[in-house]
Design goal:
single chain, about 350 residues, alpha+beta, nine-stranded antiparallel sheet, six-stranded antiparallel sheet, 8 helices, about 35% strand, elongated
């Protein structure tokens, strides 16, 4: 029998709905870059050289997470590992995948619904339906009965009971053996039920756009409930072309001053049929925090902002920041399901969007 191929990554979880929700938040385009590190991995996408989004998936989201960068080094180090200088603590393994295909594999049993603990009124949000920017990438799926594991896929002859805890939810075991190998998923509804083994084509990484937000240069910082922003964006006319974010300093304390002061946050949408303005007052029930030293205003393509709707639908809070050049950062705090031992596994999604050159 041939010796089993060592794996760079092995990760499993007994209920992958939370993991799927993180990926769904950035699945507005198909080609995604995966960067694996000792503390987890990121899934990054970009669009039109103006918008980028990253889902941060930390290792404690999984029941098992084993990262072995040396597994891909016997012949020669990958470019990302060579740049890390051989330091395992900083070593990254980077590859690209068809994200739409990965989402289809996770939903092979129709169980990759919304994450546990989220409240979502709409199953299909704004911007849904275009996950396949370029189609389905290579996938091979085999359904099996009675828990037979594929030796070449996700774990030799071990039983499913070792990987997936009993209870509700669909379990997943994911593995990656290194450059030139597919990303392999073993999906099982329960340890004694049907399984599906999927092999997803991986590609060598390509240079990606780097949008670095400088917190020291931030001119607007706001934290609010995601539902406030989600409801406002979902009510805008689909023909909206531009969205202007306007920030104003919080009003001085005092009823008279606050009543006459402009809102801390104003969203102005402009489309074919006119304009709409939505104001967010300096109220702790609306804006948890607001930091703005002087009035600021930057305009963005609405179609880029609307790409964040999926993340908004699954998140609890949103951190909205704008720097002095207009770079917009949206951080979405995802609800944290309780893990074994009472711990909560937190994760978040971040979007970066460049402003329009013409601010008129």
């Amino acid at each position: 029998m041939a010796e089993e191929q060592p794996r760079v990554l092995t990760a499993s979880v007994h209920d992958f709905r939370y993991f799927a929700a993180l990926l769904r938040g950035v699945s507005f385009t198909n080609r995604a870059s995966v960067s694996i590190a000792p503390d987890g991995f990121t899934v990054a996408v970009e669009e039109a050289r103006c918008l980028s989004a990253t889902a941060f998936v930390f290792s404690h989201v999984f029941d098992e997470f084993v990262y072995n960068p040396d597994a891909a080094r016997p012949s020669q180090p990958s470019q990302s590992q060579a740049n890390a200088g051989g330091n395992d603590e900083n070593a990254l393994t980077v590859f690209e995948i068809p994200l739409g295909t990965l989402m289809e594999c996770l939903n092979v049993f129709g169980t990759a619904g919304i994450a546990p603990g989220t409240s979502q009124k709409k199953k299909k949000g704004q911007g849904d339906g275009d996950e396949s920017d370029g189609g389905g990438g290579g996938r091979r799926a085999d359904r099996k009965g009675k828990g037979r594991a594929d030796a070449d896929g996700a774990g030799g002859n071990a039983t499913l009971d070792q990987w997936f805890a009993p209870g509700k939810g669909t379990g997943m075991r994911m593995s990656y053996a290194g450059p030139g190998h597919p990303l392999t998923l073993l999906v099982a509804e329960e340890s004694g039920g049907p399984t599906a083994t999927c092999e997803i084509t991986t590609w060598d990484p390509e240079p990606r756009m780097e949008l670095a937000f400088d917190s020291n240069a931030a001119v607007l910082k706001i934290i609010l409930k995601s539902s406030w922003l989600r409801d406002a964006l979902s009510e805008l006319d689909p023909s909206t072309e531009k969205l202007t974010i306007i920030g104003n300093p919080p009003a001085p304390r005092g009823r008279a001053a606050r009543s006459s002061a402009p809102p801390c946050l104003r969203l102005r949408a402009v489309g074919q049929f006119g304009s709409t303005e939505m104001d967010y007052p300096d109220d702790r029930e609306v804006l948890e925090t607001c930091e703005c030293a002087q009035p600021v205003s930057f305009t963005y393509h609405f179609k880029h902002i609307s790409r964040a709707m999926r993340a908004l639908q699954s998140s609890l809070k949103t951190s909205l920041r704008v720097d002095d050049e207009g770079l917009l950062s949206l951080q979405f705090m995802m609800p944290a399901p309780r893990r074994q031992g009472g711990k909560r596994s937190e994760a978040f999604i971040e979007f970066w969007c460049l402003p329009l050159d013409d601010q008129t």
